[in-house]
Amino acid sequence: MAGTINRDDIAAVREKAPLEDIVRERVALKQAGVGSLKGLCPFHDEKSPSFHVRPMQGHWHCFGCGEGGDVIAFIMKADGLPFADAVEYLAGRAGVTLRYESGGTRGASDGGGGRRRLLEANRVAAEYFVEQLLTPEAKTGRDFLTGRGFGKDAAAQFGVGYAPKGWSALLEHLRGKGFTEPEIEASGLVSRGQSASGQSARLYDRFRGRLVWPIRAVTGEVVGFGARKLYEDDEGPKYLNTPETALYKKSQVLYGLDLAKKDIAATHRVVVVEGYTDVMACHLSGVTTAVATCGTAFGADHVGLVRRLIGDITTVPPNVLAQPSIRAKHPEIIFTFDADDAGQNAALKSFAFEPGFLSQTFVAVAPDRLDPCELRLERGDPAVVALIESRVPLYEFVIKAALAGNDLETPEGRVAALRAAAPIVARIKDGAIGPEYARRLSGWLGMEPAEVMRAVTTAAKAGRGAAQGRPDVTAAVAVGPDAKDPVVRAERLALEVLLQMPEKVEPAWAAGIGPETFTVPQYRAVLDGIAAAGGIASAGKDWANRVADEVGEVLAPLVSELIVSPVPQDRPSEMGRYVKSVLSRVQDLSLTRRIGEVRGRMQRIGEGNEGFQAAFAELVALEGERRNHREE
What we know:
The chain is of the alpha+beta class.
């Protein structure tokens, strides 16, 4: 934005934007006396109309829920837009040119790369891609859709199209429609290459030989595209999105929100899935509140966008939310995380959100780790609906995921599980919900509530001490691992050498380091980030940044802390030996832990019973592996 919008122009938008027409797009209105219209409120459920509009006065009000305001307030509430975006949208509809206090104009008379021209370029491109999906060249794209259960009608409903293989097909089409090169480049629909001398070269189509999904703002306007590669000779990423433009900010858009917004507002529920085909599968299955992020994690901007559509988020205890009659009346945000470590890590990142949002957040885990698209294809529409209805509270999901790696039948396993779960409970900021989950945790562990509460309290104090002078998001990560615990210390040192000295790590040493090596969930998440960044073999000068990007904003401070922590050994000639000893130590601890787990299992099974011999063989193998490891 060029600056603060001129007040006179805001007044002109209020005066000229057609309130009645805009409301009628969302609400069926009928006469309710002279100069008044009424209908069912779009912002709460009701059977008798209490939503009134007075076009001559330019205002609306609902006597049922108390919401009301002018045309700008209606667009902000209905479409989840910030004030400035709502004014810009209405200015385009009303033909008002906006002036900004720091200079510049934007609105009906836009020229060059102005908002309306960029929107028009995206609209023309969307129509072009849809037309191209019907061509012989696009058969591979049509087969891709058919193979995932989407026919011609589904493709049309979601505006799916095809970008031809040529380097300038769309570029020439847009030129033919009167768009200038600066406008086309500003839209993000094309890229500019570089010549051998480093100078800017010709423009070329950004999307080539791909299926294309239009990404729309809540107003329904196309602001960008997501494209999926179809051919083996395409060396680009699997999914390619529009770059950041004046219209497209990936952290501020959700795919499918334009289609889902009405039902989200009506049901106070939003389902967040991972991809475009998952959104399609959900909507076609009857889950019409599904949306997806566009190449980025669900973040704070998305929270604001969702909560404006879903309504005020209130804190409701989990035992109350468990009642179906109550649950349906309160806002719900449902994520379709996987049941694996990646799903746990994604859920863990959500702790950066505010308590009120988290208390209404749920997780739905698909059977066999199928995503909604795969689930619909294999088991039909009812399976997708059942997936969403099987949701569990986010807190429960994260806590149980932390417990899952421990043997709760042994005292050692229960203590380890408590050590892993207590910091998570301690991070629940809601004063009513935290104690409730502490009580639940005692039941899941089969331990005394007082013992669990002491562990949670200790973890909370440790977190507060570590967080002094640091933002809450860092404190959320700093809670938990006890630096005095020798196991925790060994695991931390292992990550420090992997991040600080990857060039000193021999491939054979790294091969023995896996998720099972670490007992601390945060450390396992960092190891996952190292793998996602390409592993130590791809480490370079931006190594830490790549790992931090992979783990996300909640765990990024931990990565920074690990990579700047001083190591005990500072002699270059001794670095290799130090790295080997650190990694060897953590592997030895892991093997010893696994041996103890197998011994405990053998004791529970009993000699002569089924499974004993298999456990014994596993024990022999582990002891042999540890013996060889110690002799190296």
